[in-house]
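stuck on whats below:

***
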Amino acid sequence: MSRKSFVLLGHPVRHSVSPVMLTAAFRAASLQHTYSPLDVTDVRSLGRAIQLIKDGLYDGANITVPYKRVAMELCDVVDASAEAARAANVLTKDAKGRVVAMNTDAAALEAEIALATKGRSRAAILGAGGAATAAIVACKKLNFAIVGVTTRSWRDTEAAFEAESAERVRALGALTAVWPSEERDTPSSKLSMAMRLQWTELAERADIVIQATSAGMLGGDPGEEVASVVPFAKMPKTAVALDVVYRPAVTPFLAKAQGEGLTAISGLGMLVRQAEASYRIWVGEAPPEGVMKKAAEIVLAGRPT
């Protein structure tokens, strides 16, 4: 097989262990393919990078925050997986040389959620970006009866109903609720307060709460605000907290969940699953078993590779 070149597109990307994982898998399979991080600071730069795939400089890409939705719009073809999740995290080329947007996050999250919840059916999700929509799709495929979503940009009733992100979330079958901040409501916002209580009540009864933003990520926004809106102390001890962030291994969200005796799961499992799926798309076969996870664990533990 001829040498191919793949790239990770996002901002920031310095924290990512994807290059280590994919490189380890390529070497274990005796492939000379390369995988490199490329920090793209704006949508214009992202468009130029995707054009390089069309031009043949790159053979494919992974997409990470904050471009999973906009990247889909810049591709020639949108696969059913990306269409369903309203976001893309994998780009590849088809036989006609067109750039195809795909999503492996939803399937990766579905597997993680299925293992963690064992048939339970209520989910509360923080965030409304690409990872959050993937989480909604995953929960719906697992036949969750209730999926509720809130995000920091929905500070009032109008935003929770009329924002484009809210419309996208509802189109996937999830409920939307105002972000439960402690800011004083205006006189006309009684409904906002009711929706904040609704979010709290939903979260208290959730079987799983999923932190699907970059908050708490190494090099990203602090995670304390997101962690503070989840009523972990009132949740059943059988509930699960899943953070899509994997670096650091214990985010403020997971630390708070652990402090209340809940099962806390980092995003490493999801990361490995989606990377293995990316490999299959690009190479046409499964990666060497266990290689990616081991490579990621070594890096995250701070051991030399």
